Amino acid sequence: MYGTIARLRAKPGAHEQLMDVGTQDPVRRVPGYVAQYVYRSDADPDEYWLAVVFESKEAYLANAASPAQDAGYRRLRAFLTDDPEWHDGEIVSAFEAI
Questions:
Q1: Count: domains in the chain
Q2: Mind giving me the DSSP string for 25-48?
Q3: Domain that holds residue 74
């Protein structure tokens, strides 16, 4: 599996709009997409951490290069103070509840 973790800084008061963008995009229909998690910081309610999981690096890169993903990113970016801090990589370990 492969994916990214991103640090996002929302514009003050933009929580609802930011969450709406995440639910409007058809990311769940992207080939190879597995999951997405969004965390909101306890220490700073305008800071978020996004974790996205794909079946493979190839599926992740194909999505990243797609016009639909670019359009979704532009909608998301409108509610951020600056560009996200991205950390891409191979998922080498995962644990799930049984």
A1: 1
A2: S-GGGSTTEEEEEEEE-SS-TTEE
A3: 2-88
Q: CB–CB of 81/9 below 8 Å?
A: yes
Answer whether 84's CB lies under 8 Å from 50's CB. Answer: yes
Read off the pTM. Answer: 0.87
CATH number of the structural domain spanning residue 67: 3.30.70.100
Buried/exposed code over 38-50 (b: 16+ C-beta within 10 A; e: otherwise)? eeeeeeeebebbb
Is residue 54 included in any domain, yes or no?
yes
Using 50, 70 and 90 to split pLDDT, how confident is the model at 6?
A: very high
Residues whose CB is less than 8 angstroms from the CB of residue 49 and which lie 6 or more positions away in sequence, other chains included:
5, 6, 7, 8, 38, 39, 41
Query: Is 57 in contact with 90 (CB distance < 8 Å)?
Result: yes
CB atoms within 10 A of CB 95: 5
- Residue 91 φ/ψ, nearest 5 degrees: -85, 115
